[in-house]
Amino acid sequence: MPLKRIGALVTALTLVTVATPSSASTLGRGPWTPTPAPVEKGDITAVAALDGKTAWAVGYRLVSDDEARPIALRWNGKTWAQESELPRDSFPQAIEVRSQSDIWTVGDGVQHWDGKSWSVADFGRDPAGYFLPEGLDSVPSGQAWVVGRLVADSVKDQVPVVYGWDGSAWAKQALPDVGKGELTSVVSLAPNDVWAAGFSATSPQTSLVVHWDGKSWTRVASPSVSGAHTWISALHAGPGGVWAVGGSNAGAADRPFAARWDGRRWQAALTPNIADGRLRAVVSTGDGELWAVGGKGAVTVALRWQKTLNRWVRTAAPDVVVRGVAAVPGSSSLWAVGIAKKGDLVPVITRTR
User: Residue span of the signal peptide, if any (predicted)?
Assistant: First the structure.
């Protein structure tokens, strides 16, 4: 599993979009400024910020051709330093920071930091297959959610899965029959208002959205790009409602995809037509700006939502193969993490001012 996960980290995920003309104006914002990463070789896969002086990032350090050690880094307002190593073979892909002594990560399993050490969440053995978590979120009451996929004999047979944390234990949730597919992201607005999204493995692949109302999960109709594989990779509760971003592919390059829940239904949002412009993250800053960031290979894409134009517009992007993005609460700043576009697994951490 470790080597497979390393390969998965190096290979960008495949995502999909609703396209608008590429002639849309580009907004300037930046610059993105790199900050030294205390890792010579490896990958930084996710980042989260508590405030301007405290942020956390997770990933792995490559110590040999066949050994990687999962690590957690902490920003103290001036520099990044390694805070700890995570449990072996964890390879975190997402992070949720509720305080400096209450942090969740997911990757090959789920881990929790209590301020002193990491522990591994016990989901129990599922006879239907192996659980691979992909995303997590929580609410102030302490309730948390992890979404992903359950893999039996082959990834072709994977099905979406949700686990809920009630403050003392994880429990698998009952989902409606959505067929094969995967859930990649979850956002909690309240204990009785939780969204999870990903894709259904239909032909072509379509977006998948489910909602928790405090009693049960139900599937909610969501848009997809006609004639193209469509997927959702990230959710965010921001200005104008709940946002979903991802990508679409009609047989050539991946394109950006975005949709919004306006309180009544999900609707596709206009995005620039950018080749290899699949989106990985969507966040909102303290000044009300909504950002979506992603890309594939040498292409990095950053979009900002223009309410007056009712569409996403391209803006200055970080010069990095993006793995994760986070907004700094109470400010207009963003963090972006990943690896350099040149070199062999050179970790990069960069930010806007």
Answer: 1-24
Give me the CATH number covering residue 24. Answer: 2.120.10.80
Q: What is the tally of structural domains in the chain?
A: 1
| DSSP structure class, residue 306 | E
Query: Hey, what are 70's tokens?
Result: 């999962």
**What are 233's two structure tokens?**
């990779």
Pairing of strands 159-165, 170-172: antiparallel
**Residue 6 scores a pLDDT above 60:** no
Q: Is 87 exposed, middle or buried (0-12, 13-18, 19+ CB in 10 A)?
A: middle
Domain that holds residue 266: 2-352
> pLDDT of 298-345, one tens digit each?
899 999 999 999 999 999 999 999 999 999 999 999 999 999 999 999
| Among 275, 147, 300, CA closest to 209 | 147
**N-terminal to C-terminal alpha carbon distance within the chain:** 38
Burial of 243 (0-12, 13-18, 19+ CB in 10 A): buried
